[in-house]
Amino acid sequence: MQIELNQPGALLTLDGCLAQIGWSRQPLLDCNLEAGRCYSVRPFQCLRIKRWDYYAVVTPPSFFSATIADLGYAENLFVYMMNLETGELHEDGLVIPFGNGVQLPRNSTEGTSHFKNEGQPGFPCIRNPTKDLGFLAGFQRRSRSKSRD
C-alpha distances in angstroms, 103 versus 84, 96, 117, 134? Predict the structure, then answer.
């Protein structure tokens, strides 16, 4: 039997173990990933922790998806827009090795997720600009368009 969590608390204990195991009807636990213990050498810890926000909207004629991610060793942003009637897909993405422009809130119930591209000296953005979706104005992007047969 699974336990329903009813009280706020930390996700991890100070030694990096799960503080509580169970489920909740709403977000209750503080995402204290700094307490995680993936490596015994603390400076490498940030290379293992992955954080992201994912959003998707589906309507009868279309599907839209966006992700903003901090992978520890790179930042990754991408969007998809698909026409469900024709199968046409537009995809834009941006990968920044060792970037620091992604800002994600500590918890899903507070703060904002955003990206600010100030350029990373010595680490160029990986890109192949071929199509402009408009709402990505200012991003360096990679795109492709596919249609179903």
Answer: 32, 13, 11, 22
Q: Structure pTM? A: 0.66
For the chain, list residues with pLDDT below 50.
121-124, 127-149
Q: Which of 89, 77, 87, 72 lies closest to 34, judged by CA?
A: 72
pLDDT at residue 118, as a whole number: 66
| Cα 10 to Cα 46: distance, rounded to the nearest angstrom | 19
Q: Where are the beta strands (DSSP E) in 38-108?
A: 51-59, 62-70, 74-83, 89-97, 102-103
| Backbone Cα Rg of the chain | 19
Instruction: Sketch the domain layout of the chain as residue ranges.
Output: 1-48, 51-146
